[in-house]
Specification:
This protein has 231 residues and is α/β, with parallel strands linked by helices. 32% of the residues lie in helices and 15% in strands. α1 (15-27) links the parallel β1 and β2 (35-37).
């Protein structure tokens, strides 16, 4: 059975993306009873007081004083919103299901026509492996060094060459064990979502894998959707 899917998409604020995804996921034969829409706090709904309850730009955690990204000192409301929406999603996943793995999508994902077949291959390959995170997307155009040139070959699992394993967060397969750790350690945060998860993965000494050729592409990264962040 396909793992539960949590989509970070707010139907009220993202009605076009929501309608597109409803059609798109059904076309890709995704069982909609396994799909959950996460209506996280939108940026405009976050008050200044709530903003700094969860986001601390100068936070020193676990003797780790250096920021991972240039963005950390001045996150936008939209970036804080995404972190909070993901945190809400992981809490819902842990509370709603006993499953040992979950899929998380952002609102601009575009799935390959053979997504289910490739996902089945990923789950089969990872069955006897120890892992916390499997990237299902292409990570802003970056690929493993030993990946095949063609995007049409069979999907394989690769160990990332560096510690910055979350190249982006549009499509993630995450283990229950790792989500349990995130629920305890993720708030307050100081980074945008991908860099925050890089920090968390290093903190918990997790195991990451990249699926390539990817199963999903980021719509805004390929100009299928306009980005919702300014700039």
């Amino acid at each position: 059975m396909i793992p539960p899917i949590f989509v970070l998409c707010h139907p009220e604020y993202e009605p076009i993306r929501y309608q597109i995804l409803l059609i798109h996921l059904e076309k890709r034969r995704i069982p909609m009873d396994r799909v959950h829409w996460v209506r996280g706090p939108w940026g405009s709904e976050i008050t200044l007081e709530d903003f700094f309850k969860v986001y601390e730009p100068f936070l020193c955690r676990y003797d780790f004083k250096t920021a991972l990204s240039f963005k950390s000192a001045g996150l936008l409301r939209g970036e804080v919103s995404l972190v909070l929406s993901f945190f809400m999603a992981l809490c819902q996943a842990l509370d709603m299901y006993p499953d040992d793995k979950f899929i998380f999508f952002e609102s601009d994902v575009v799935l390959r026509e053979d997504f289910l077949e490739r996902l089945d291959g990923v789950l089969s390959q990872s069955g006897n492996l120890q892992w916390d995170y499997i990237s299902l997307g292409e990570g802003v155009g970056t690929r493993p060094k030993d990946a095949e040139f063609s995007y049409f070959g069979p999907t394989r699992l690769f160990t990332p060459e560096h510690q910055f394993v979350f190249r982006c967060t549009d499509s993630m397969l995450l283990s229950r064990e790792f989500l349990d750790k995130l629920r305890r350690s993720m708030l307050p945060f100081r980074e945008c979502l991908d860099w925050e998860l890089n920090f968390q993965m290093a903190l918990h000494k997790g195991k990451s894998l990249w699926a390539d050729p990817p199963l999903v592409e980021p719509g805004s990264g390929r100009w299928r959707f306009l980005s919702l962040l300014p700039g």
